[in-house]
Design a protein that fits this description.
The chain is mostly helical. The protein is built from seven helices and no strands.
Length: 195
């Protein structure tokens, strides 16, 4: 096998990163769906609270999260078949996403149920996890917008600490819009250009 000089290696790496960016642009739907899942969950939670149906709040969240998981399990392999390629960056993005998904489940469901912290801390913890996920993906794909969105989630987590716990989830909605849905729409526009 022919050895590459440093300039050729760098060009090869850049080509692979650009190919990965194109493939990533096609996965905009994940950000969009996982943006709508918590927004619908928050809306459902506040409607149930207004109706004093507190016992339905957890099933509300379980329903929306389960729907997002089912979508991901169906849509993910479809995207993989369409691209036919699995780059290192895609594998890393998958690992980061799975690790953060498990963190979301632990921080949003299991740890509060074990009474390790009060329910009012869930939006703060979700914001911290979302920041890690989005910032990491921004670093992996060298996309500054995602890094800024990740930082926005962390700032939101700090602001939530000073908001009454009954209203913290409301702040999570604009964070999701700017941190998930806006980047999804930008990726969708890129995907449409590349198709």
């Amino acid at each position: 096998m022919e050895e590459l000089n440093p300039e050729q290696e760098l060009r090869f790496i850049r080509e692979m990163v650009e190919r990965t960016r194109k493939i990533t642009a096609g996965s905009w739907m994940f950000l969009l769906i996982w943006g709508f899942v918590p927004i619908l969950g928050v809306i459902g939670m506040y409607i149930l609270a207004a109706l004093k149906k507190y016992s339905w709040i957890w099933p509300n969240w379980i329903f929306f999260v389960a729907a997002g998981i089912v979508f991901s399990l169906i849509y993910g392999p479809k995207i993989q078949r369409q691209t036919g390629i699995k780059t290192y960056a895609q594998k890393a993005a998958y690992s980061i996403s799975v690790a953060c998904a498990l963190g979301f489940i632990l921080a949003g469901f299991i740890l509060p149920m074990l009474k390790l912290y009060p329910w009012g801390m869930i939006p703060v913890m979700m914001s911290l996890m979302a920041g890690v996920l989005i910032f990491s993906l921004g670093g992996l794909f060298e996309w500054a917008l995602l890094k800024w969105c990740g930082a926005l989630f962390w700032i939101g987590a700090l602001v939530m600490v000073f908001i009454h716990e009954n209203y913290r989830a409301l702040l999570f909605v604009p964070l999701i819009i700017f941190g998930y849905i806006v980047p999804a729409l930008v990726l969708r526009a890129r995907y449409k250009k590349q198709s």
